[in-house]
């Protein structure tokens, strides 16, 4: 498969020093709001990279469910492959790709579990089917057939027939506490605009332009 002719010119925007907001959190929120307004499915989908204790990386998409100056929160199974990696090596990188805007954002940081109370609050806001799914799926384990999942789901439906589903012990949120944010805007001739925010010695966020 020769894909060498598959290319697009990035002409939809620019991003310069005068556009930069002081805080990367405000900058992220601004770009996120703009991504939400585009005809884009799941603007909160982020490609999450983790690595095991030997440094072997893996990626997968998860959904951003909360964003504040505390960090970026997503929910998952605490016995999944990503969770095992995060317990061994609590650092991650996340990438948001907003192609209709020809933008990406990269966030790197350390990762911590959120409190059980926060996970419970979010879990209770999920649809019944998703709550049952969290109980039914041994995420990232090898299973011999789909029917195992369907049987487990039926079992859970019966168990929680009255509609109140408790938070599974092995399910909850992680928060990425950002150490850097990079904002990327595609430009012509591959001379894209890139700015990276990191904290200086005084703890203030400082943005610097990077070569594309
Ligand atoms: C659009 C999209 C959203 C997803 N959201 C989540 C999510 O929020 N949490 C989650 O655990 N998995 C989510 N998944 C599934 C993950 O990509 C992945 O398959 C799963 O978490 C197992 O990953 P692991 O084996 O590396 O732990 C999503 C997948 C897609 C394509």
From TrEMBL:
Origin superkingdom: Bacteria
Pfam families per UniProt: PNP_phzG_C, PNPOx_N
Stored InterPro entries: Pyridox_Oxase, Pyridox_Oxase_CS, Pyridox_Oxase_N, Pyridoxamine_oxidase_dimer_C, Split_barrel_FMN-bd
EC number: 1.4.3.5
Gene3D superfamilies registered for this protein in UniProt: Electron Transport, Fmn-binding Protein, Chain A
Domain Pyridoxine 5'-phosphate oxidase dimerisation C-terminal: 171-212
Entry's Gene Ontology molecular function annotations: pyridoxamine phosphate oxidase activity
Enzyme class: oxidoreductase
Residue ranges of coiled coil: none
Domain Pyridoxamine 5'-phosphate oxidase N-terminal: 36-156
Keyword Flavoprotein: yes
Keywords linked to the UniProt accession: Flavoprotein, FMN, Oxidoreductase
Residue ranges of the TM segments: none
NCBIfam families: pdxH, PRK05679.1
Record family assignment: Belongs to the pyridoxamine 5'-phosphate oxidase family.
Protein known as: Pyridoxamine 5'-phosphate oxidase
Natural source organism: Coraliomargarita algicola
């Amino acid at each position: 498969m020769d894909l060498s002719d598959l290319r697009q010119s990035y002409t939809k925007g620019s991003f310069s020093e005068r556009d930069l907001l002081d805080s990367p959190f405000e900058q992220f929120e601004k770009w996120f709001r703009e991504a939400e307004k585009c005809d884009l499915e799941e603007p909160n989908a982020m490609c999450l990279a983790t690595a095991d204790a030997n440094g072997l990386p893996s990626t997968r998409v998860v959904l951003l469910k909360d964003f504040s100056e505390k960090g970026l929160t997503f929910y998952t199974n605490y016995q999944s492959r990503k969770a095992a990696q995060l317990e061994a090596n609590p650092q991650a990188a996340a990438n948001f790709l907003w192609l209709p805007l020809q933008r990406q954002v990269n966030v790197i940081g350390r990762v911590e579990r959120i409190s059980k109370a926060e996970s419970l609050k979010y879990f209770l806001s999920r649809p019944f089917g998703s709550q049952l799914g969290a109980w039914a799926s041994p995420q990232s384990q090898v299973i011999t057939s789909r029917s195992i999942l369907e049987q487990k789901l039926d079992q859970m439906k019966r168990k929680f027939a009255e509609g109140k589903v408790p938070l599974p012990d092995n399910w909850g949120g992680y928060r990425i506490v950002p150490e850097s944010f990079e904002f990327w805007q595609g430009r012509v001739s591959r001379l894209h605009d890139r700015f990276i925010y990191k904290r200086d010695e005084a703890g203030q966020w400082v943005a610097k332009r990077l070569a594309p």
